[in-house]
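Re: the 291-residue chain
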Amino acid sequence: MSGTITKATLLEKKEKNGPVKGAVTVEETVETLEFTESVTLVNSSSSAPSSSKSITKTSTELAHRELPIFSNPLLANATQANSVPIKPKSGRVKAGGKSVLVLRISAPKVDGEVVVMRRMDTDLVNATSMFNAAYPAISEKMNAKESNFITRKYEGHVEKSGALTGVWITLSQAKELAKEYEIDQFMRPLLDASNTKAGLQVEGEEVVEKTVISETTTEHQDMEAEDSQAMEETTEKLQDLTVADVAGMKRRIEELEGQVSRDRKKLRGLATVAVGLAAATVIPQVLPYFS
C-alpha cells in the first residue's frame, strides 16, 4: 500500500514539473533489491555443496584405499601363526649428526631384503619400510601415495634423508598397520620387543647407551671362555695319549717316509727306461745321415 502511494506522489510531481530524467520508481527499486538478494542466495547455496563434497572425498580417502594385489611371497612362512619368529637385531644409525639406537628386522625379497627399523629413542616404527616389506614390487608412485595416506591418517613423522628416510608412526599404529598389511606375525618380534630406553642417558642431542659396553664386554668374555675351553680339550687329548700310541704314530710316519722314498726310486727307473727306449727308436733313423 505504501509503495503505491509513493508512486502516485512521484507521478504527480512529474506531471507538474515535466518529465524527470533518470527517475526510478519504487517498484523498480524493490524488484532490483529482490533480484540481487535472490542471486546472492543462489550463489551461496551453489558453493556449499562443493565444500561438503571435498570434505566427503577426503574422509572417504582416509577411510579406504586400495592396497597392491601381490604381496611378498618370501614372507608367506613368516606370516603364519606357527612360524618361528625372526629375532630383531640392535644397531646404531647415523642421522642428523648423531647416532640413533635402533632395532631392525629384515624381510627377504627376490632381489635382496627390506630392513624395517624401530627407533629406541622415540619408539617410532618406519611405516614406509613396512609397506615395502609387505609389497616389494610396488612402483615409486604407489609408494609415495601410501606414504601420503599414512602421514594424513596417523599424523606420522616424516624423515626425508639418510638411513631413517620414511614415515614414522607409533607402536600401536604400527600394529594396526601390520594387520592391514597382513604381516603382523612377522612384525610381532620387533613391535613387542622391550625397549632398553631405561638404560640410556640423554645428554643434549647425544644418546649414550650404557648397555653397549656391557654387551661388548660379555661378548669378549664369551670368546675368551670358548678359547680356553678349546685349549683344555686339546690338552686333555694330548694327555690321554699313551707311550704305545706315540710309538705307533712314529712307526707310521717312518713307513710313510719309506713309501715316498720307494716311489721316488721307481719314478727315476721309469724315467731311465723311457729315455733308453726313445734313444733306441731315434738313433737308427739318424745314423744314415752320418754314414
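The two ends are 163 Å apart (CA to CA).
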